[in-house]
């Protein structure tokens, strides 16, 4: 730590599960005042979670929260800063709600402004984030071929109903659909090879999906650029996938999707993706729990 001040309180929360043993863990520092980039990276590396979140005072003019509940938030993986992280946003919102009650929050991220609403129903606290405006982009045949080679996935194992695309809703994710649940479950990829490709394409994760039904999907997210083999529950990728599925007409414009993630890692979680007519942004919600 390069700061001369006291070490900040470091909280640990999981997102997208009501159990500490499920979902995706995140480090949460509610007051990162005085920490520089190196300090935040060191804390994230020490925790070893896919991302950790750090709060400071909001930039001037940021509004929309209740009673000053607006913040600047930054996210660090064990290797580098990332522009947006959904699960750490949900974890942070739930940590704040446990201290100041449910309600509306506003986070200034590197990707843009992300409102979050926290509600309590029947003793369960649920946070819903609203993404920045999303978009998709094509991937070249050469880059797709390299991705499949790194994954060791034959092209015939892809679902032809889901064209490969790069989707963005705060961070860039390559969406690939498996034709079977067995294909999705069998994930043993070349870490260094996929990491190099992802750095070149500026990808945060590769979102691998399998469609169980019209609105239920199973997903996995390799995250080698963050120094993590696989992310257990990925809110930013869920938002990107919702935008992708809507843009390609794979789901209705008015839809609620359930994404199951983490089952193959022994950390099951559920992400709810809501699409609303006339609203280009994507809403991702989930529960959370404090760890230890």
SSE layout and pairings?
Layout: E1 11-15, E2 24-29, H1 37-47, E3 51-56, E4 70-76, E5 81-82, H2 86-100, E6 103-109, E7 112-121, E8 124-130, E9 135-137, H3 141-151, E10 165-168, E11 172-177, H4 181-185, H5 191-201, E12 205-211, E13 216-223, E14 228-231, H6 235-247, E15 255-261, E16 269-276, E17 279-290
Parallel strand pairs: 2-3, 4-6, 11-12, 13-15
Antiparallel strand pairs: 1-2, 1-17, 3-4, 4-5, 6-7, 7-8, 8-17, 9-10, 10-11, 12-13, 13-14, 15-16, 16-17
Pfam families: PhzC-PhzF
Family: Belongs to the PhzF family.
Protein name: PhzF family phenazine biosynthesis protein
Task: Give a quick summary of the entry.
InterPro entries: Phenazine_PhzF-like (IPR003719). The protein has 292 residues and is α+β, with helices and mostly antiparallel strands. The chain contains six helices and 17 strands.
